[in-house]
Design goal:
With 95 residues, the protein is mostly helical. The chain contains 3 helices and no strands.
Length: 95
């Protein structure tokens, strides 16, 4: 490595040293707070729980029930049978 390359590396190395020092100080502070109990207990930190298949099925059932309660019940229209259709046609033509 030539002297010019070394002179270009010094500022970069200096920046890396400053960053590593800052990170080290952050870690020291974190562990100091943890040892003093100043950090939030793990129970208070919301951690997503792994959902089981039963949980998933229950959520889906709840969602379907909720949807059903928002919508009125759908009733199927009965298709007219041939007899009713012919009665309607004959009834109209006879009058």
């Amino acid at each position: 490595m030539s002297s010019t390359e070394a002179s270009h590396e010094r500022p970069r190395l200096s920046q890396i040293k400053v960053e590593l020092t800052r990170l080290f100080k952050e870690q020291v502070e974190f562990f100091r707070k943890r040892s003093l109990g100043e950090l939030a207990p793990i129970e208070q930190i919301r951690v997503s729980e792994k959902r089981t298949k039963a949980d998933k099925a229950q959520r889906q059932a709840d969602q379907l029930e909720k949807k059903a309660s928002r919508r009125p019940a759908q009733t199927r229209k009965k298709k007219p049978t041939r007899e009713k259709f012919s009665q309607a046609v004959l009834g109209r033509s006879g009058s």
